[in-house]
Write a structure and sequence with these properties.
Blueprint: E1 7-12, H1 34-44, E2 51-56, H2 59-66, E3 74-78, H3 90-96, E4 105-108, H4 118-133, E5 138-145, E6 174-185, H5 186-192, E7 200-204, H6 216-230
Parallel strand pairs: 1-2, 1-4, 2-3, 5-7
Antiparallel strand pairs: 4-6, 5-6
């Protein structure tokens, strides 16, 4: 635990994946317990995370998590079905999180970012505490976009120059949330009903490690990237 308080990692899964069948527990890159087992192994290697809140209504996911119950940081919490539906209001889930932990800081992450390992989470936590001292109130991981981006009318939205086609390095960067890290204080959850504050630090990650699995093609490409990165 840091001097600034306990850091809890909220790791939600649910049964009934709609876009990628059985994505959480089907074998991934040779890992029998799939994305759930991979993420738990990564979190177990972290030195900055004090508590792991595995929140699920899926018996298969819970069975995988129970293999790691020997680590005292892991809390397996069966989440109410009402908070596990595809139609669940995210605000309701956000309000639920601080009711299952007393941690001062909450890192919300997902099994679907399989290339974010323990060292990367540790780096994000350390940067978060630095950012708090600089006046930021939270941290979110992002991918920087510095390319020609159009709005629905076909106009460049990130061109602040007088040129119709500036160099890409002169375009105003925009940032895409990659769903790897949402890190904020408990007070942000309780007072703002949000997992990010009003002045988040943008924690830029590379596209490979920030890969998020949303579709079947993503699952396949993430396996390839994982094997190339970690030699699995």
């Amino acid at each position: 635990m840091t001097e600034s308080g306990k850091v809890a990692f909220f790791l939600p899964t649910r049964k009934g994946s709609e876009r990628v069948k059985n994505k959480n527990t089907r074998p991934f890159a040779g890992i029998g317990g799939g994305l759930v087992e991979n993420k738990l192994m990564q979190l177990m290697s972290s030195s900055e995370i004090d508590e792991i809140l595995f929140s699920s209504n899926d018996d298969e996911c819970i069975a995988v998590a129970e293999k790691y119950a020997g680590d005292g940081r892991l809390k397996i919490i069966r989440r109410p079905d009402a908070l596990c539906s595809s139609s669940t209001n995210l605000q309701d889930l956000i309000s639920y999180v601080p009711t299952i932990t007393d941690a001062e800081h909450i890192l919300w992450g997902h099994v679907t970012t399989p290339l974010v390992d323990g060292k990367m989470y540790d780096g994000a936590v350390r940067k978060y505490f630095e950012a708090l001292e600089q006046g930021f109130d939270s941290l979110v991981s992002v991918r920087e976009l510095r390319n020609f981006l159009l709005d629905s009318d076909g106009r460049l939205v990130n061109n602040t120059t007088d040129l119709p086609w500036p160099r890409t390095q002169d375009l105003e960067p925009l940032y895409e949330i990659n769903h790897a890290v949402f890190l904020a204080g408990r007070s942000v959850y309780e007072r703002q009903k949000n997992r990010l504050g009003k002045r988040p630090f943008l924690y830029v990650m590379d596209e490979v490690h920030g890969k998020d699995i949303d579709w079947e093609d993503d699952f396949t490409s993430a396996e390839v990237l994982y094997r190339l990165t970690y030699g699995a």
